[in-house]
């Protein structure tokens, strides 16, 4: 799966499942910052989505990998089978 | 000392949980440190990382009247109720208005929701779904004819029910209250807590390994009685119930505040309201769920609160035996606390090794966390704490002595209505609603709903980071609540955040969200639940979101009885203010109309197939929704902050004649009782009532009950008495419509709704015409619930 496709899938997930407004969500927008405001409950959803859709486990992975769509996509890219 | 007429005593106990099917068995097993936690046999655990639960094993639950009409939550509760009544030497109450029922629950009829969804959508399951069914069916089983309500504050609901029971008795509204909580183990909470990674695969280990909770199920009932009533019948007396404290974290929808300061405030209120010293408390039955977040917050709060004055307080969590029984937890733990008090025995938290004990000691110092085996200790007072999703904290004190209970300290204060927030299918603000009324806007279809948009959020300064988390019910609630604060010009600050509370009334609360969650896990399996969606299933999530957004940290309770909950939120708020617990309250009514709600109404054959208006003798009603919030505060408080006053809340009343939950026929005379009770409470005569804001929705069965009661109560005066019916415009929005009816009355009395359609009931039929409202001085507002409960409120200039 191309990197761009992963990112667009992630963005669609943030919009449909975590209620994020797509207009303010760029690939480099900080997800846990003030504007988007994700928290620990949301990270559980991200982990579950990434596992189900890309077969990559992010359980217990360092925080910096969750910073933005870019960093999550990079982690998936690096760790997918 | 507490005056005799304010003393509340416990005269009966009942319990059913994984440790035992009655008090004797449960207590005996608890003394032997038996845990009820085992591998679950009732649910699918495929791909689930934790499979333990504390399930009830009882084959006599169906030995009640019409078991097919009751969810397991009701059955558990009725079993505990029967034991408690028997223990108290009480039996059938013959619809006595002096006997009330208040039951807490978190997930209510969730098993019936699952059954409906998985097994052919049978309409018979529908009346068993809402939490409201539980108290109603308990009342029906023993013919309690007083106030019947449920508390929907998730895991703190059981404790709050007992606190509310005392409030009712001290306010002179009941002699006996059957109070407690009930919940059953089911896929939705199991999958939900799995999705939050909040279950401990090895079984919960409170204050110890703290890897998560283990779910349990059961019911607990405490018979709370006025001292006078108990003495008169020479009843058994276990102990006194002293004061309680209920607060809101205003922090996070699932996680407690790490600093535990709002839990500390709840304990402080409980101690102060009890009129005791902190050092009088010998044992604290903690919430102690076994999650790190909860347990550490509690450890901190206990050290801060008791550290100096009561450093060797005994503490334990009994959840390691019973599992976390959610809405029943507080009630079951109340039974444990009372047994501890009366037998001078502290129950332990189980499963500590020597290393575990040493590690805990590091954290808690000399505080006495009782471990592994029970401890004999002379006890004077015990405290029981529970906290919940939505940020609710509740604390209550049981005692051998009467204490010096603080209650009704503000009972002579006038209560002003100072703010109104309306979200409805015809407008999302008071202004938009009034404009639609002026333009004669009516429903366009037989199923209508409110639409909250980004414009609402923008106007109220609600950021995306917050509103993205809201489900539909939460959207309705937060927008109406914030609009009410804005309308009242009430700015919540650090200084006043604890002086204002919230009571949310709702008929179905999170039932729709629970159904949607069930739909998800039917598809994905129990391992496929959503951590994002699960919090919305609890009925107090909407109120919790409002508290987080507004910063309100005072009293926070969600009541759920049916449509009249939207009016009872006003009545109970008056009680909270008169009790001196808060200076100001937000009373709100909220119910949603998402597709499943209309589907359920259609299945029950109560949804109209076209637009109908009140008194149209139709076979159904327009399904609606909304959220309406009203700010109430003492006149002094309103004056001090220069608030405008719409009108005053003069009195409220209730009536009940038991019929089956889901039914109304045959209960009509209870509406007469509610009206007369409200008039008496307000000190107003029937002749002084200038208008009525009622609850007719077009459905003949309901409208006929309303009409017939008005004929009896108002007599000849009725022909010239204007009746206003908000449901002609917003449909049957249940609790939202009940609060809207009160809001309309306030708008008329406050001069903001100069003209309105009025219905007039005469012998030859119903007529309708526009009337001027400027001459009105006092307006009666009424509402109903299935099962036979009615409420009324009197508002006046």
From TrEMBL, chain A:
InterPro entries: ACP-like_sf, PP-bd_ACP, Ppantetheine_attach_site. The keyword NADP does not apply. Gene3D superfamilies: ACP-like (1.10.1200.10). Keywords: Phosphopantetheine, Phosphoprotein. Residues 1-80 form the Carrier domain. It holds the Pfam family PP-binding. It comes from the Bacteria. This is Acyl-carrier protein.
